[in-house]
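Second attempt. The first submission of Branched-chain amino acid ABC transporter ATP-binding protein had a stray character pasted in from the spreadsheet, which I only caught after the job came back as garbage. Lesson logged: always re-copy from the clean sequence file. Corrected sequence (250 aa) follows.
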Amino acid sequence: MTAALRTKQLRKSFGALQVAKDINFSLDQGARHALIGPNGAGKSTFVNLLSGTLKPTGGKVYIGDVDVTNASPASRVNRGLARTFQINSLFNQMTVTENVALAVSARLKSDGGLWRNPVRQPELQREVDRLLDMVDLTSVATKRISEISYGQRRLVEIALALALKPSVLLLDEPAAGLPKSSSERLLELLVRLPRETAILIIDHDMDIVFGFADTVTVMFQGGILVEGKSGEIKSNALVREVYLGNARHA
Ligand code: ADP
Ligand code: MG
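This time the job returned cleanly.
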């Protein structure tokens, strides 16, 4: 089976600081995978290299069979790679529905300009409803972004990424800044997301990491420290020492 996403000897330096050290990584189709490690391990840098917002110093990135190492972030999106963006990518004065509809119509543009075609508006509405249901936001569909909570905005971002029907979704700290009750709800809906999308999640919330992921990669000082099934990683003494030791002070 071709991996949904793969890197070969991926490397990144900022001056003398090596932040990604020859990373060979592979994400299976439909995988539920977590990337963990202490602050500064290089997790966000790695995700930025995958999504193309950073250029590597060396190595390769593949989406499926396609070498996208030199492809722009936008063309990687077209190849099926989505990630969540910062909150300021949402249109604050528009409603939740309108924000999601924009993303859906952007995907469907090549499909005949759905947004401009009144005949197909019901199809657009159905897709928006489906996405809002997926992230549990149906009850705030008609509210403006400026009127909903921080946690709900994070969920809108996930809906926008899912609107692209990606083969790979990168979630960099989706639970950051959420109260425990919201992160528990986030976990519930993450585990229900369709398996057509492989998901790579970075988070410091170990309940989310081990509740969600089947497999885990631990990064440390720009390299992969260990990889394996969630259960093995969870009980790995070295991982507990390195990771949880740091998390106590985070
Ligand atoms: P993590 O997400 O695991 O906390 P990061 O990928 O954000 O780690 O950072 C890894 C290391 O790279 C850190 O030491 C950080 O200070 C450094 N770093 C990240 N981005 C830059 C940059 N643009 N310029 C210089 N150093 C950077
Ligand atoms: Mg980070």
